[in-house]
Amino acid sequence: MLDFSLVSDFIGFLLEASVVTIELSLFAIVLGLILGLIAALMKISNIKPLMWLADFYIWVIRGTPILVQIFLVYYGLPQVGIELGAFSSSVIALGVNAGAYIAEIYRGGIMSVPKGQTEAAESLGMTYTTIMRRIVLPQAFRVSIPALGNQAISMLKDSSIASLVTVSELMMVSQRFAATNYAFIEFYITAAALYLLMTTFLSYFLKKLEFRMSQSER
């Protein structure tokens, strides 16, 4: 018989672990947004080495499991003299992984901007940097918000993999208490509910952001 009273004794620890999950996801998605933008700009450039480098990055990251990537960062980098903590390693691995997918999202958004707008800006004497900053990227970002939102939600859920490298986020803490109290169903259901609550709030925020961006476009 299920006994959720056990969970109530540890709910404070689970909430603290949820905060760690949010922090981990936030740092990783910010890193992913930065790397994704850089990779997208490299991919649409006319400089062949940059295009090849971006294509290689996206190909490798999207073609290998995120579990392998996080293990390479956490366990592999110390072999070459780079020591990182579990939290930092997880942020880097998750951020680099997200960046490959976000690059394609950005690229699609940039390609959706009518070419006539850039040509008109060029005729006015604007530089490439100014055109991208003032005309192309703001529009591309608005178009990309739904896909970026999905990526952020996926990142929040994928952060649970950090438990495998000892980050005390929600999944690891839930596993620990489930094992010590022999209440696996109770703790895993609670963890699922907390993940659902976080993703619901994130989805609500993203919908509000999308609505505001669409209003400002009119």
From TrEMBL:
<protein>
    <submittedName>
        <fullName>Amino acid ABC transporter permease</fullName>
    </submittedName>
</protein>
<dbReference type="InterPro" id="IPR035906">
    <property type="entry name" value="MetI-like_sf"/>
</dbReference>
<keyword id="KW-1003">Cell membrane</keyword>
<dbReference type="GO" id="GO:0022857">
    <property type="term" value="F:transmembrane transporter activity"/>
</dbReference>
<feature type="transmembrane region" description="Helical">
    <location>
        <begin position="82"/>
        <end position="103"/>
    </location>
</feature>
<keyword id="KW-0812">Transmembrane</keyword>
<keyword id="KW-0813">Transport</keyword>
<comment type="similarity">
    <text>Belongs to the binding-protein-dependent transport system permease family.</text>
</comment>
<dbReference type="InterPro" id="IPR010065">
    <property type="entry name" value="AA_ABC_transptr_permease_3TM"/>
</dbReference>
<dbReference type="Pfam" id="PF00528">
    <property type="entry name" value="BPD_transp_1"/>
</dbReference>
<feature type="transmembrane region" description="Helical">
    <location>
        <begin position="56"/>
        <end position="76"/>
    </location>
</feature>
<keyword id="KW-0029">Amino-acid transport</keyword>
<dbReference type="GO" id="GO:0006865">
    <property type="term" value="P:amino acid transport"/>
</dbReference>
<keyword id="KW-0472">Membrane</keyword>
<dbReference type="InterPro" id="IPR043429">
    <property type="entry name" value="ArtM/GltK/GlnP/TcyL/YhdX-like"/>
</dbReference>
<dbReference type="InterPro" id="IPR000515">
    <property type="entry name" value="MetI-like"/>
</dbReference>
<dbReference type="GO" id="GO:0043190">
    <property type="term" value="C:ATP-binding cassette (ABC) transporter complex"/>
</dbReference>
<feature type="transmembrane region" description="Helical">
    <location>
        <begin position="185"/>
        <end position="206"/>
    </location>
</feature>
<feature type="transmembrane region" description="Helical">
    <location>
        <begin position="20"/>
        <end position="44"/>
    </location>
</feature>
<feature type="domain" description="ABC transmembrane type-1">
    <location>
        <begin position="18"/>
        <end position="206"/>
    </location>
</feature>
<keyword id="KW-1133">Transmembrane helix</keyword>
